Automatic annotation (TrEMBL):
A GO-annotated cellular component: membrane
Protein name as annotated: PAH-inducible cytochrome P450 monooxygenase PC-PAH 1
Superkingdom classification of source: Eukaryota
Pathway membership: Secondary metabolite biosynthesis; terpenoid biosynthesis
Length: 525
């Protein structure tokens, strides 16, 4: 009863506090479910959000669940301030069983984790990972060629994310844990992928009741333990499978840590295992921290790359002239280094259009659509582009109070006309080859030419961003050298299903899970 009363009081406080009343913003279709219901039920991620930014500017007010006011922004200077300049004053939070905020790793703990992991992402270690990337894509190419040849033709329609997800799981297993899931060969990785597939059945296009139940997690997570939805149960099963795999792998690795010490094992888990056995408490990670890192690597390093490459191949299949130009760069590089020479990271970096199409795919199809933060203290967020208030006043900064929730729209930030030009929503890799392609100078929140993307930046930038980029380069090079990708004659509309990631799916078949069928042709030798 006391907990319920506290929840009611908390909700009343949220509803009656209106710190953003001066900002303009859209009306929500449901006061209880909030704007998130509208975003999760749009046909394709960004459809409504991008229109809001065109109408209200780079920052506006949205009504969240139970009437909570949320600051939404895609402004480059605001993102830079929130992710980088502000330090720890604007942080991501989770809430305990009573709804009390428990902030994600503090600066000291976060830095300790990064320090422990840094050796696993050194330049020397990345060169070792590169060989695994290349062998994995060669394995996939061999399987595709066998499958296509057995069909009696030199081409076949293939569901791209289905196979890329298996390959990236194998890559994560080998590079992170020195473990072979064998997902490409239908071995140990399949149960995890099946549970990931099941997440779609109850997560796509949630009802208002589902959204009301889901958003209560911010205030009273105990409700989820007492009355879990089908979506909660499926997600719990997926996370339990991930943790089970993490425990099995870590137990196997921990039992041979002494041998790893002698052999200098540099896969990521070897680094973590040594850190966990270190005597220096400043470096030591407890078992729960290690398992959390393993689970994070399994989740974060698999589908993000698979889906990013899926969107890239989809765009290249729709723009064959760009695919041809990239293939010419690959062919010219191959002529320079020889057929039997394995490309280096520098070789990949030397191809301008090859890298331009990667950047454009990451810009146009941001895998992580949004990130949320909460203000620890009263603060003022600066804007690159002034916005107009309800009173007609033009402002270039927004004051926020302690506890203010902020929704950063990463996908929208990559499609702002004021930043990328009038063709911001169009596919145009050449923009990255032109000087001054980005209209905002000196405002950066991330890596890869200021793109605020899934492997993007700030104080908590993904430590594996270079790892991810090299993996994408290796996959694209290996696949385009062996195959041509053509959009099917029975055309379909590819949608970005808004879940935790922007999931590629065929319109009208979203509940079947990730899909992007393309006609794959074996290139002539």
């Amino acid at each position: 009863a006391v907990g319920g009363a506290l929840l009611v009081l908390r909700l009343i406080a949220r509803i009656t506090r209106k710190p953003l009343f001066k900002l303009r913003g859209p009306k929500t279709s449901s006061l209880l479910a909030g704007y998130e219901y509208d975003l999760f039920n749009q046909k394709s991620a960004g459809d409504k959000e991008y229109k809001w930014y065109q109408e209200y500017g780079t920052a506006f007010r949205a009504t969240g669940a139970y009437g909570e006011e949320v600051l939404m922004t895609a402004d480059p200077k605001a993102l830079q301030y929130i992710l980088q300049t502000s330090g720890e004053s604007l942080v991501r939070v989770r809430r305990d069983a009573n709804g009390t905020p428990t902030f994600f790793k503090s600066g000291d703990i976060h830095q300790r984790h990064r320090k422990v992991l840094n050796p696993a992402f050194s330049a020397q270690q990345l060169r070792q990972f590169l060989a695994i990337f290349q062998e994995s894509v060669s394995h996939l190419a061999r399987k595709w060629k066998e499958d296509i040849t057995q069909s009696g033709s030199n081409e076949k329609q293939i569901n791209i994310p289905f196979w890329l997800g298996r390959m990236t799981l194998d890559i994560i297993g080998k590079t992170s844990f020195d473990f072979d899931f064998g997902a490409l060969d239908n071995k140990d990785g399949v149960p995890l992928r099946l549970k990931f597939q099941n997440l779609f059945q109850d997560s796509v296009q949630p009802s208002k009741a589902n959204m009301i139940h889901r958003t209560l997690e911010r205030y009273a997570p105990f409700i989820f333990r007492m009355f879990p939805s089908k979506e909660n149960i499926r997600h719990r099963d997926f996370m339990n499978e991930t943790r089970k795999i993490a425990r099995d792998i870590y137990a196997r690795k921990d039992s041979v840590v002494d041998n790893d010490e002698k052999n200098g094992g540099k896969d990521i888990l070897s680094v973590l295992a040594r850190a966990n056995n270190a005597e220096d408490s400043r470096k030591k990670l407890n078992d729960s921290e290690v398992l959390a890192q393993v689970a994070t690597m399994l989740n974060a390093g698999q589908e993000t790359i698979a889906f990013s490459i899926t969107y890239l191949l989809y765009e290249l299949s729709r723009h064959l002239e760009d695919q041809t130009q990239v293939f010419h760069e690959i062919r010219n590089l191959r002529a320079q280094i020889g057929q039997d020479t394995v490309p280096s990271s520098n070789d990949y970096d030397s191809m301008p259009y090859f890298n331009a199409v990667i950047k454009e795919a990451l810009r146009l199809h941001s895998i992580l659509g949004d990130v949320q933060r909460e203000a620890l203290n009263d603060d003022v967020i600066p804007l690159e582009f002034p916005v107009t208030t309800t009173a007609g006043e033009i402002i270039n900064q927004i004051p926020v109070r302690k506890g203010q929730r902020i929704h950063m729209s990463l996908g929208a930030s990559n499609r702002l006309n004021c930043v990328w030009g009038p063709d911001a929503s169009d596919w145009n890799p050449s923009r990255f080859l032109e000087p001054g392609y980005r209209r905002v100078s000196g405002t950066s929140v991330g890596v890869i030419n200021n793109l605020c993307i899934r492997i993007g930046g700030g104080n908590r930038a993904c430590i594996g961003w270079r790892f991810a980029l090299m993996e994408m380069q290796s996959i694209l090079f290996g696949l385009l050298e062996s195959f041509e990708f053509v959009f099917p004659t029975d055309e379909y509309e590819l949608q970005r299903v808004p879940l935790n990631l922007m999931i590629p799916a065929v319109k009208g078949k979203e509940f079947r899970g990730p899909a992007a069928p393309l006609q794959v042709k074996i290139r002539a030798s």
